[in-house]
Design brief:
Layout (H helix, E strand, L loop, with lengths): L9 E9 L3 E8 L2 E8 L6 H13 L8 E7 L2 E7 L15
Antiparallel strand pairs: 1-2, 2-3, 3-5, 4-5
Length: 97
Amino acid sequence: MRDRLQIPGVELETELGRGAYSVVYRARQGLVRCAVKIPRAKGRWTRWVHREAVALARVRDPGLPVVLEVGAIDDQPYIVMELVEGEGLALDRKSVV
C-alpha cells in the first residue's frame, strides 16, 4: 500500500471511494469531519484540481460539499472539503438496462 499524503492539520481516516483518477478519504481537520480528494497521479493534475475546487466553491447546494482547503504537497495536489453524509452516486449496475 502506498504511503498516504501527510497534510498538516488533517488526519486521513478511511478510504471512502476510488475512481479512475482519484481517491477520496474520510478525514478530520481539528474537530471537523471532512473528506479529502487526492488525484492518483502527481503534478499534471494540479491545475485540474484547482479548477475543480474553484467550480465547486462557486456553487451552493445542500448536496454539494463546501471546499475547506486546496493545496499541494511535494507536487501532489489535494482538496479538503466538507463531508456530505448519505448515499453514494455510484450506479447500481443491476438496475441499468
